[in-house]
Amino acid sequence: MEITLKKNTASLVILTMSIGMGILFIPSFASPTDLYLANAQQNKTLIQSDDVEEKNKALVLEALDTLFNQRDYAAAERYWSPDYIQHSTIVPPGRDGLFSLVKSSQPTLKYEPGIIVADGDFVIVQGRFSGIGQPQNMIAADIFHIKDGILLEHWDVIQNEATQEQSKSGLPMFGDKFPNNSG
């Protein structure tokens, strides 16, 4: 078996494996600099991401839990840059604007993370905000830019969570089941 790794500048990695008479192409959108090949004949992982992206995902999850669920504002300061840039239509500018919004929200506010992906210094996490005092929960795709282990910049896409009756696909927007209660 022959294994080759081809990289291009669009962060697309093509792993080619010659297996007998055929060739198997495995595209990956991981960063080429974050990949390495292990010895496939020793049953080790063929491609493994650098742990920078895993650390960035863990940082975002810890930050969101600390701020939204624990409401520990002093601890949350270590995750958000004092120069935090906010690209949101519902969150006031800066770290202080974000913290003020959370402080003024319902005490029942809860954040649940869902799907999370990372690409270098960027992390996207899908999450559910419940207990917000509205008829429906909110589902958000939050995009964070991380620099030197701190959240520097943020964008979001937010919408109300569809009920089972509202879902055209019949599938939930978050997780594998519809929520029992909203708001």
Provide an overview of this structure.
With 183 residues, this protein is of the alpha+beta class. The protein folds into two domains: 2-49, no CATH class; 52-160, Nuclear Transport Factor 2, Chain: A. The protein has three helices and eight strands. The protein has helices at residues 51-69, 73-76, 94-103, and strands spanning 2-7, 13-19, 22-28, 80-87, 110-119, 122-130, 138-147, 150-160. It has a five-stranded mixed sheet, with helices on one face. It is globular and about 45 Å long. Mean pLDDT is 80; it is low at 1-48.
Task: Provide the number of structural domains.
Answer: 2
Q: Label the structural class.
A: alpha+beta
- What is the CATH first-level class name of the largest domain? Alpha Beta
Strand content: 35-45%
Considering DSSP H and I runs of 4 or more, what fraction of the residues is helical?
Answer: 10-25%
Could you give the order of strands across the largest sheet? Answer: 4-8-7-6-5
Examine the coordinates and then state which fold CATH places here, giving the name of the CATH topology of the largest domain. Nuclear Transport Factor 2, Chain: A
Distance between the termini: 56 Å
Q: Mean pLDDT, nearest integer?
A: 80
Low-confidence stretches: 1-48
Number-wise, the strands total: 8
| Largest sheet geometry | 5 strands, mixed
What spatial form do the alpha-carbon principal axes imply? globular
CATH architecture of the largest domain, please?
Roll
Number of H- or I-type helical stretches: 3
Indicate the radius of gyration in whole angstroms: 20 Å
Q: H/E order of the elements?
A: EEEHHEHEEEE
